[in-house]
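Thread amino acids onto this structure.
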């Protein structure tokens, strides 16, 4: 698979500047940054919700990674059905 080097990357940026106005590029970059920030915030909220559920179910979370806690919550919820 071909890799993109610095020269190719600079050429792509130059083409984008020619096609789009610089103002449009900054608007696109700002929107992309907002999207990434919102995604990270939502992912963090999911993690908090999992930890809250573990606390409610009486699952100890200290020293455990998130995947282990998720699995324990999942097992506890399945066994309660």
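Threaded sequence (81 positions):
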């Amino acid at each position: 698979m071909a890799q993109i080097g610095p020269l190719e990357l600079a050429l792509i940026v130059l083409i984008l500047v020619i096609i789009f106005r610089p103002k449009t590029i900054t608007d696109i970059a700002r929107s992309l940054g907002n999207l990434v920030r919102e995604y990270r915030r939502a992912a963090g909220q999911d993690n908090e919700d999992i930890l809250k559920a573990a606390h409610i179910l009486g699952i100890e979370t200290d020293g455990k990674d998130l995947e282990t806690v998720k699995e324990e919550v999942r097992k506890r919820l399945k066994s309660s059905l």
